[in-house]
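Reviewers asked in the last cycle whether our approach scales beyond single polypeptides. To address this, we selected a multi-component target totalling 605 residues and predicted its structure end to end. The input consisted of the following lines:
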Amino acid sequence: MAAVVGAAATFASEEDRDAYSDRFPVDPHRHRPFAAVAPTSAEQVQALVRIAAAHRVPIWTVSRGKNLGYGTAAPVVAGSIVIDLSRMQKITVDVENATVLLEPGVGFYDLYDYLQTRSIPLWLSVPGNSWGSVIGNALDRGLGYTPYGEHTRNFCGMEVVLPDGDLVRTGMGAMPNAPTWQLHKYGFGPAWDQLFVQSNFGIVTKAGMWLMPQPEVVRGFDVEMDRMEDLGPLIDVIGPLRREGVLQQSPTIGNWFRAANILTTRKQWTDQPGSLSDAVIAAIRKQFGLGWWGVSLRLYGRETVVQANLDILEKALNAIKPMSMKPFSWRPGDPFSPTQGGWMGVPMTFPMQSANWFGGRGGHIGFSPVLTQSGKLAMEQFERTYARYKEFGMDYQASFAFGERHLLNVNAVLLNLDDPAFMKRVDPFLRTLIADARQHGYGEYRAHLDYMDTVAETYDYNNHALRRLNERVKNALDPAGILAPGKSGIWPAGHPRGSRT
Amino acid sequence: MRRVVPICLVLLLPLLARGADLTGKQLFQQKCAMCHGAVGMGTGLLARRMKPEVAPLEMRADLSAAYVERAARVGILNMPPITRGDVSDAQLASIAQYLAKGKP
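The resulting structure, written as structure tokens, was:
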């Protein structure tokens, strides 16, 4: 492999192995790779997978390797070789059609800077940690906060290296030089883009993404709801407006914890172990002026349309008597606070300051079941989850992110890597949450390396027909079983399920 | 050993497609400023441990090049290690020289 990428792109020291390991680990020893290589072209990626197949060496692909909370750059199977695509950084923007063709090493900041320095009036949607790759985040179904916030939906056409070294372009890209590769998502016959999302069927070396034309105005409200039980009514107000299209963004309801864990440390509030008490919660809410729940609702587009929808939104919100409702209004050229970046497509890293909540080495891991947009059912799921947070002595951080028809209930577990007793509680806590959700028919949309098998296990209709299908495809495309064994719970034939080495 | 090697490698490494002809300041902006710029995670957390006006790395007067390279490669507290795939040894050497303002 070093012969393919060169010695300067081959990383196999102990320090390199540490650097490519998981930085927010439940168990720091579980996913250490053997080495990493950094190709610069699809041709090099093809050569690498052919070598891996010939020698039956497991490989693990990362776009930029910044998937903090889900495994960072580390593989499921320890001893794998990481194919680090960080150095593939080409950007080709089609301004008129509002699309971009990207390589996986392009980060959110890279694309943002590219558009800004050229005064291109196109916006991206960014996740709460925007350090990573635009493609990589969408391949793991990451979320943002604008109308383009469901990132995996923005894909339009891919170039993929298959595990046998073949190179395929999906959709209209299957026609050489088609001018419509980034315009029509399906092409002719089966559409494959989602087959390469959260899977181990191929290595995406290019992907088309749709970008949002800069809106004429952005308007909306930052809404705070006073009581715990206000979650249900808030969901029941937003859901219909989202389904109808009055709201087109991906609004995210968050709890009282969302500012405190970024701007302060736990010791500033309490020295008591266990979940934060009601008294501490009240103090936090008072300092930051927050409700038990809050949500930032934004409308984007032509001013007359936005204003008409804003009036509808305001009337609907007033009916549930918010604790506060702060208006937001922007048009091109207006300044805005960096804390508004998520709704304005500006990359950010400051939310990751929550890794310092316990004052030392920290991190986070998520539990994120997919729910319906029912206030009653979401409230019931919240109550079960919150009770478990208290039972296991964890500080409760939750969000409810709207899709067009679903809710993603992203619960963060803030880690204290300096406290072994605390860390021992994390794994049973997460497994309990997954089992609780399963009982009610809720499955997770995304998982850390350690929980991919556990989550896949819950998708078990008809004796795991979906997993059997995934693994039939896997074995057909990757007969040597080298590409990311265990990713999303998909294991190749001959590799014992759950084997970590 | 790696503290010395990168300076030699600058002359020997094949130039990368992107970043090879950038200055240390430009590389800092491209590779580090997302966390160590005005409102980044690194600046926010360093401001808890030192005077806020010197929390941005570009405002520091006490950084040595060797320290910057070591900190980037092994990580500090909540800062993850920066992989060599993301920032090459040559690029990191250039960034470290810039932040150290001439100190070795």
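The interface with chain A takes residues 2, 9, 13-14, 16-18, 30, 34-35, 38-42, 44-45, 48, 73-75, 77-78, 80-86, 88-89 of chain B (CB under 8 Å). We regard this as preliminary and will revisit it once experimental data from Aim 1 are available.
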